[in-house]
Amino acid sequence: MHPATGSPSRLQGTRETITCRLMENTHHPNGSPWRNFYGRFKGKTLRPAQIETLDEDLDRLSVPNVSWDVNPDRTQLDLQALFGQKDLWLEIGFGGGEHLVHQARSNPDVGIIGCEPFLNGVAMLLQKLRDTPCENVRIHPGDARHLFDVLPNESVSKAFLLYPDPWPKKRHHRRRFVTQEHLLPLYDVLKPGAILRVATDIPDYVRQTLQEVPKAGFEWLAEGPSDWRTPWQDWISTRYEQKAFREGRGAHYLTFQKPHA
After folding, report:
1. CATH number for the 8-257 domain, one of 3.40.50.720, 3.30.70.2740, 3.40.50.150, 3.40.50.2000?
2. How many other CB atoms are found less than 10 A from the CB of residue 259?
3. Is the pLDDT of residue 258 over 80?
4. Among the options 87, 165, 204, 227, which is catalytic?
5. Which of 28, 75, 87, 223 shows the greatest Cβ crowding within 10 Å of its Cβ?
6. pLDDT at 50 over 90
């Protein structure tokens, strides 16, 4: 195991310093944050069947009261109303939704929220949920940071970040999810002892992940190479992973944990 470096008091001081820097000059006058979003909201033209699925199913399956327009006070979500007493898991950027549906079917006693701003991916997930209904899935079709705003602290038991956008150019590395702007609020909504899984086929993304995730307070749970070369036992290979394999890139499976209180 490779714990985050530094004493608890030093780590807390580091987190507070980072948080203060992120808050400087980052809010609109009405309180909503200035947040640059990098990436696409829409790709290829949606097929009529996809448009129909979005129109008929998205509102019903969306997490309510996330946007600033409907919840400017950032009132916390009522997770009891969403999932009852179920544990809460979170997938950040679910792509086509195959992993999310796999986990939902395999873990019916867990509630899973999937975040995905890319509308085509949302449409693909909705179609999968029509083919394989899962009552324990809800969707946030937007920026995960807005969801972090309204999730209660220490409410999430497990989070997944699987094949995130690599932003390969060096000048774009700050756009990656594994920056303190994303990791600090994610850390706050995770329960003590919660697990964060990161999968990527990009060696430099591994480098940045191993630098930034422990800096946010997480511990890397690895004792040898097999711990990041071997998929998790409940893993299902996604279409993004299969594309990486076809193009000759290997996968890295990184497991982190928020320390127990």
Report:
1. 3.40.50.150
2. 14
3. yes
4. 165
5. 87
6. no
